[in-house]
Backbone:
């Protein structure tokens, strides 16, 4: 515990240094945070919530600009004292009429706010926000949360998005990749110059109720949207090979593929072993009552759900896609599974089901790795470092201008 406290003190000091670099004699930096609207609170929304809460606590001022709907995520921000403004035209699907209207909305809001920095999140807000910031001459940082040039359903390059990202990448904004795999994809695609891409891993606050992974009977949990990038089918097929063991599988989430997952569970004879929980408002509570966390995916960037499981002290079994291998150490904090390989998944789950001691050891290692590398304090401090590097040239230019004006008046 003393080592953990020391690490947190170091990052608080680092955040304070970033504040000093950015604000000079001012009381804090004004930051406009822009995100595309979503019906669901996913990884990008969770990241933004923890980021702005941490930034505000360090003396800065964030305003969140978001597309509709006005949901629980945005209501939660307001309860935390974060100003929120809804941009009615900022919706996820591409639209030839609505998107220009959204751009004008963003420009108007930024012109009124006069922020020191524009931070944009997700693909649509990322593109329009960078254009708007360039039009107003405002410094900008873009966090895509999964590079949009790759179609998450097919895995193929989307040529239209590639062209749009290439244009946006020439507007001077700095890009934050949430893992090295995403940074590699951005650089190799040449949509942003290598020097303008920084990696800042996601981080989450440490307030979870600890799990007891060595307990019995075993509960396996997966928290994920039922959509094409996820792979519930591989998990269900693997589970059908483990009926001789005692376990319950809990699947939290909703989405367009929920019905087909339920049908598959019935066809595999698992209807009495699998619980479909729907949207979960208390993920920490769910994980505290679990013994193994599973995330099967076809495509990922750097999933926050894995960090939540590690925070709770659970062993994690996850698909080896995207940046997952950057957080999960195979055989140390959990197991990495080739995408779609239900046989290997069955083997690894059987190993954990048979060994309470192994579950406890891997879960303990996962918890330590989370504390060492993936707390919200670390994410906020490293993000502020990037913000400082982006804002500093502008503040220095403004300071020089103020000096020249003052000198002339004297």
Residues:
């Amino acid at each position: 515990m003393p080592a953990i406290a020391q690490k947190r003190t170091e990052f608080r000091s680092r955040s304070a240094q970033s504040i000093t670099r950015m604000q000079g004699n001012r009381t804090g930096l004004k930051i406009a945070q822009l995100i595309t609207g979503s019906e669901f609170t996913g990884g990008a929304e969770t990241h933004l919530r923890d980021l702005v809460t941490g930034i505000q606590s360090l003396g800065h001022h964030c305003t969140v600009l978001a597309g509709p709907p006005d949901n629980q995520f945005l209501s939660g921000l307001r309860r935390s004292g974060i100003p929120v403004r809804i941009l009615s035209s900022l919706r996820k699907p591409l639209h030839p009429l609505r998107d220009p209207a959204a751009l004008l909305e963003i420009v108007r809001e930024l012109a009124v706010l006069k922020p020191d920095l524009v931070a944009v999140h997700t693909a649509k807000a990322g593109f329009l926000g960078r254009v708007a910031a360039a039009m107003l001459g405002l410094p900008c940082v873009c966090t895509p949360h999964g590079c949009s040039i790759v179609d998450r359903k097919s895995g193929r390059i989307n040529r239209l998005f590639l062209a749009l990202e290439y244009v946006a990448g020439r507007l001077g904004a700095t890009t934050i990749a949430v893992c090295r795999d995403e940074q590699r994809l951005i650089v190799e695609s040449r949509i942003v110059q290598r020097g303008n891409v920084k990696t800042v891993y996601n981080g989450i606050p440490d307030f979870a109720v600890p799990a007891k992974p060595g307990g019995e009977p075993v509960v396996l949990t997966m928290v994920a949207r039922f959509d094409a990038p996820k792979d519930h089918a591989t998990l269900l097929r693997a589970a059908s090979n483990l009926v001789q063991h005692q376990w319950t599988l809990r699947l939290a989430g909703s989405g367009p593929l929920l019905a087909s997952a339920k049908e598959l569970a019935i066809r595999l004879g698992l209807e009495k072993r699998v619980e479909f929980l729907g949207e979960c408002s208390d993920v920490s509570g769910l994980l505290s009552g679990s013994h193994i966390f599973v995330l099967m995916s076809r495509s990922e960037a750097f999933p926050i759900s894995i960090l939540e499981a590690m925070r709770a002290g659970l062993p994690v079994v996850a698909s080896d896609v995207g940046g997952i291998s950057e957080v999960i150490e195979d055989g140390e904090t959990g197991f990495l599974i080739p995408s779609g390989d239900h046989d290997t998944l069955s083997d690894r789950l059987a190993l954990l089901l048979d060994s309470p001691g192994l579950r406890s050891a891997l879960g303990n290692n996962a918890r330590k790795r989370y504390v060492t590398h993936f707390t919200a304090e670390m994410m906020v401090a490293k993000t502020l470092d990037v913000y400082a590097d982006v804002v500093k040239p502008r503040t220095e230019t403004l300071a020089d201008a103020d000096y020249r004006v003052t000198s002339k008046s004297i």
